[in-house]
Design brief:
heterodimer, A: mainly alpha, Formate dehydrogenase/DMSO reductase fold, 12 helices, 2 strands, B: 15 helices, 6 strands, 71% helix, globular, disordered C terminus
């Protein structure tokens, strides 16, 4: 495997980590105003992700930084091309991050409810827009010969990409509801279970439609044929197992399965893209690939050494954090947020 | 309408806003870690309550720095795509390393610190705040390695129509890093020192109870030593950086001094009212020889002026205007240096009063230290505006101009939209943050004995605040 491929894989891994971890953060944020009926319940919900949301968000920052370092043309074309969408995501992430810190620092009910809705919007917008963005990479956007995006904001919206956004959003809500089920006690837990029963099937249908849409609206069928290979089938298997395990009320295992669903869905997208990183809808020749968008072998080598040393360290201490905060948030738990 | 000035405004507003919070984060985290260490070593409950008090203010400030940092990392691609393409091979690496090595560290261990009071051993919990301190200052190092490349490009070669990394070692050991990083870090520590002094002084002027006075007396002493040491250090490293700048970015220094013509010995401007388009003084007061002294530690030696550098750069880089906006650089440099000198005087006074044990009985000193809190903020903002505008017209000095760096496909209307949007969001959050900071700063320490775990079921205001 050459270094360009290695970095393509590594960026895929970073996005997977981001969607798995921030996936349940976004789900919890979206459910916050609906599952918490009293202020204390809402505090408990926020505190389930309190210790980890910031560390989870760094997966996105690292993915962005890795794209910049390894594939500068990808970084330049995508971030300038998806300009307004990215502005919305950034504005959402700004208010969301501050809202976690600020909401419980004043007793005024209006203050708290304002920040709770900021958490809701700040979680909902990225949950949808990241799905839209990923689908656009694969579907193709107007990229000209000089690697520049020559479309506008509304070129990013099509039935396929909007479907992708709704699918990621529903999947994150399900993922987040299972997380809440595992991290809370009744009545929040019971309400989370009810959400899983309603949104889970919806997420399943949307993901299946998205898979169908990928055959219809992208060049996957032309390039890879009708046999999708192993990765999408694993995504499907994980998705269906999640449904079965939810039905059997085995929530811990269901969470593992929604995690695997996200993992294999992102992997499917990256496998379908390879070796391209952004497809040009104007001319296949103008697509950005891991070769024409990349940094020099020297830079990739340096970055590989840095990543080889630090990625395991980061994984170790993040895993330890989850171990420290593995217990449910109960009425006895001290609430910091 | 042109996208370039709008993109520059957006970058400038975001950066200054971001750096409004970052220095306090970088400097105050050492105070919090130190206070918690004092509690760990002595078991004295007052240190723990002080840790909680300053820790709360630290967290309110930290959140703002984090969220604006996300914009910082992404706006190169959004608004400066040609820059990102041209230097990405060199410039992307420190940004990615910053995220991987520093952001993960500070954010993960901050989560452990905030929520781990009862879940971690005392020692592990103390280690968490030290790791946050180390991580956040490490992130400053990597971002300044990136910025130093823009000020004084190193470790690269122009090849294949772009800047390509030739030596990672040369990039990270760029001599510019060694003057800029200490300047930023000591400036951040001075900011935190004045923050601690100002708030402690406010309480010492008002608190009647011995419990509160004792706590803020301790804070004041910590703040006085910290503020004086950091401010003295910042002046030394700032001076070193200025001498360095005269060698590697002489145009920036010439603009900072509104020095139109080369001089030997060079006089330092105390006040200049100039005519920028014609590059001449209208009215000026100057201290003879002082600029040469600042540059070379002796009262002679040529300091080059804007006109001579302009001629040299035209010969080297082709036709164009190579002078930065002189009014901006001149006045921001003065605000920064002036605020620094005032801070040194005040911190010296505070330290002397601390050594004499007389600060509590000096309402004049305490009264001055409260409004003095604006000084480090003024110096921080002015310093960055100066150093970034002083690089103009370059985005990477001598390698790429600003006008060639902007995203060609992002329309001016889009930039205007995001500029207005970001500015409104920033303003609203700033108001909320200042409201909370003031509320908790004035609220004083948590009561003795109030630090025991408070459960959610006890929905008292005290529980809500802990």
């Amino acid at each position: 495997m050459d270094l360009n491929t290695l970095w393509f894989v590594l960026i895929g891994v970073l996005f997977t980590g981001f969607f798995v971890l921030e996936g349940f953060d976004y789900g919890v944020g979206i459910l916050l105003p609906f599952l918490g009926r009293t202020d204390e319940e809402r505090r408990r919900i926020v505190n389930t992700i309190g210790p980890v949301w910031d560390g989870n968000e760094v997966w996105l920052l690292t993915a962005g930084g890795a794209i910049f370092a390894a594939f500068p043309h990808w970084y330049a074309t995508m971030f300038s091309g998806f300009y307004l969408a990215l502005f919305l995501v950034l504005a959402a992430l700004i208010v969301r991050g501050v809202a976690f810190e600020f909401r419980s620092k004043d007793e005024n009910p209006g203050w708290r409810s304002t920040w709770d809705w900021m958490i809701f919007v700040g979680s909902l917008l990225p949950a949808i827009l990241f799905g839209v963005a990923l689908a656009n990479l694969l579907k193709g956007v107007p990229i000209d010969q000089s690697k520049s995006f020559v479309g506008g904001f509304f070129d990013l919206l099509s039935p396929y990409t909007v479907l992708a956004g709704l699918a990621t959003c529903a999947l994150f809500v399900t993922h987040g509801a299972i997380f809440l089920n595992l991290k809370s006690v009744d009545p929040i837990r019971a309400r989370a279970t009810a959400v899983i029963g309603k949104v889970g099937p919806l997420a399943t249908i949307l993901l299946l439609l998205f898979a169908l849409g990928t055959y219809l609206w992208t060049d996957v069928y032309a390039r890879l044929g009708v046999n999708p290979g192993l990765v999408p089938l694993l995504a499907l298997g994980a998705l269906l197992s999640a449904g079965y395990l939810i039905h059997r009320e085995r929530m811990g295992w269901a969470f593992v399965m929604t995690t695997l669903t996200i993992l294999f869905t992102v992997a499917t997208l990256f496998v379908s893209l390879f070796p391209r990183v952004m497809v040009s809808s104007l001319n296949p020749e103008w697509s950005l690939t891991i070769y024409n968008a990349s940094s020099t072998p020297y830079t990739l080598e340096i970055m590989s050494i840095v990543a080889g040393v630090f990625v395991p360290i980061v994984l170790a201490y993040q895993a330890w954090t989850y171990w420290v905060f593995r217990h449910r948030i109960t009425a006895e738990t001290k609430l910091e947020y | 309408m042109d996208a370039l000035p709008l993109a520059r405004w957006q970058f400038g507003i975001t950066t200054v806003y971001h750096f409004f919070f970052v220095p306090l984060t970088l400097g105050l985290v050492w105070v919090v870690a130190g206070l918690q260490t004092a509690w760990y070593l002595t078991g004295d409950d007052v240190w723990k309550r002080l840790t909680k008090f300053w820790g709360k203010l630290f967290l309110l400030n930290f959140a703002m720095g984090v969220v604006t940092g996300i914009v910082q990392e992404f706006q190169f691609g959004m608004n400066w795509s040609e820059y990102s393409r041209f230097v990405g091979d060199v410039f992307g690496a420190p940004l990615a390393i910053e995220a991987l090595v520093a952001f993960f560290l500070e954010s993960t261990f901050l989560g452990l610190w905030i929520f781990g009071w009862d879940k971690l051993s005392k020692k592990a919990h103390l280690a968490a705040i030290w790791l946050v301190a180390f991580g956040s200052n490490l992130s400053a190092l990597w971002i300044l390695i990136a910025n130093s490349f823009m000020q004084q490009p190193a470790g690269y070669v122009l090849r294949n129509g772009r800047a390509e990394m030739e030596s990672f070692w040369a990039l990270v050991t760029n001599p510019h890093v060694f003057v800029q990083f200490p300047h930023v870090i000591t400036g951040a520590m001075a900011t935190a020192g004045f923050f601690v002094l100002g708030i402690s002084a406010w309480h010492l002027l008002r608190a009647k109870d011995e419990d509160g006075r004792d706590a803020f007396r301790r804070s004041f002493r910590v703040g006085a030593v910290y503020a004086f040491a950091a401010t003295a250090a910042v002046l030394v490293v700032g001076h070193t950086q200025a001498q360095y700048m005269i060698r590697v970015q002489p145009m920036k220094m010439a603009a900072a001094e509104a020095l139109w013509d080369s001089q030997d010995p060079a006089a330092m401007s105390l006040f200049t009212w100039g005519n920028e388009p014609e590059r001449r003084d209208v009215w000026a007061v100057k201290a003879p020889g002082l600029l040469s002294f600042l540059a070379y530690n002796r009262f002679s030696g040529e300091v080059r002026g804007i006109k001579s550098l302009q001629a040299e750069y035209e010969a080297r880089y082709g036709p164009g205007d190579y002078a930065p906006p002189v009014k901006w650089t001149y006045w921001n440099f003065r605000v920064m240096a002036g605020a620094g000198l005032l801070m040194l005087a005040l911190a010296g006074w505070a330290l002397l009063a601390t050594l004499r044990g007389s600060f509590e009985t000096s309402p004049r000193l305490l009264g001055l230290l409260v409004p003095a809190l604006v000084l480090p903020y003024a110096a921080n903002s002015a310093g960055w505006i100066f150093t970034e505008l002083g690089r103009a017209p370059w985005i990477v000095f001598g390698v790429m101009k600003l006008e060639n760096a902007v995203s060609p496909t992002v329309r001016a209307g889009e930039v205007l939209f995001s500029l207005v949007g970001f500015t409104l969001v920033y303003a609203a959050l700033m108001a909320a943050d200042i409201y909370l900071l003031a509320k908790f700063a004035k609220g004083g320490l948590p009561r003795a004995g109030a630090l025991e775990p408070t459960t959610a079921t006890v929905a008292t205001p005290a529980a809500a605040q802990v």
